[in-house]
Amino acid sequence: MKELKENFIAAQIKFNNEVVKPWFRKTKRQLNKVRDRYPRQLIIVVMLVMIVVSVGIYYHTTKSALAVMVNGNEVGLVSSESIAKQAIEELKNKKSTALGGQVVQIADQITYTRTYGQRKELLSKGELEKLLEKQLRLVTTGAVVLINGEKRLAVANPTVGEQVLNRVKEYYASQIEGQEQLLAVTIEDKVEFKEETLAVNDILSPEQAVDLLINGADQTVKYKVKAGDSLWSIARAHGLLIKDLLDANPNLTEKLNIDQEISVVKVQPLLTVVTSVRGQGTEVIPYQVKVERDPNQWRGTETVKQAGTEGSKEVTYELVKRNGQTVERKIIEETIIKEPVDKVVVRGSKIMVASRGEDGGGKLGWPLRGNITSRYGFRGREFHPAIDIDGSTGDPILAAEGGKVTFAGWDGGYGRMVEISHGNGLTTRYAHCSAILVREGDEVSRGQIIAKVGSTGRSTGSHLHFEVRTYGVPRNPMNYLR
Question: pTM above 0.85?
Answer without folding.
Answer: no
